[in-house]
Design goal:
about 150 residues, alpha+beta, Aminopeptidase, seven-stranded mixed beta sheet, about 40% strand, globular, binds coenzyme A
């Protein structure tokens, strides 16, 4: 793992978050969507490597539950531990904030994401058949934080 650092998302990070998202998803969340999330209680962390911002994790807390809204590492920085470390960071921070469980949803065909979620101790608790285009299911994962 090379020079991986993390910082909390700030209220003026919407442009950066949208830029990372655009590099990672076919249907990215734009700057306005990110700004809206940030004023509505979403919290997050940005990973950097060698002073370059390379990844994000966004979560929402409600009562004693946390939901992972998005996790992404830009293509050039993948498979260097950023995604796994971001996931560990958001689980730790959610636990510190009082959450007892972390939930997330992911495409069943997203092999790298499913791999890091299972490796981090998440278990499948449900699925929604044909939730995405081309008959791809959505899988819900949960991890206790205690
Ligand atoms: C999922 C994602 C965040 C992982 O980020 P990352 O920084 O590469 O993650 P890490 O380097 O910590 O770990 C990647 C793991 O995936 C594994 N991996 C890579 N390609 C894989 C594949 N095709 N099938 C299974 N595992 C795979 C790597 O071996 C590594 O696991 P290991 O550490 O046990 O060897 C990144 O691929 C990404 O941004 N994808 C696009 C956005 C996305 O799909 N986000 C998740 C939506 S819920």
């Amino acid at each position: 793992m090379s020079d991986l650092q993390f910082r909390c998302v700030q209220s003026d990070d919407a442009t950066l978050l949208a830029d990372i998202h655009t590099q990672c998803f076919a249907k990215p969340w734009g700057e306005a969507a990110m700004a809206s999330l940030l004023v509505n209680g979403t919290i997050g962390w940005i990973a950097s490597m060698e002073k370059k911002d390379v990844g994000l994790a966004l979560i929402r807390l409600a009562a004693d539950e946390a939901e992972l809204l998005s996790l992404a590492t830009i293509p050039s920085a993948r498979c260097k531990g950023a995604g796994r470390s971001l996931l560990k960071t958001v689980c730790q921070q959610a636990k510190l904030a009082g959450a007892q469980q972390m939930f997330l949803e992911v495409r069943s065909d997203n092999a790298p994401a499913v791999h890091i979620y299972e490796r981090a101790g998440f278990t499948r608790i449900g699925s929604r058949e044909n939730y995405y285009a081309n008959h791809v299911d959505a899988v819900t994962f949960m991890r206790p934080l205690i």
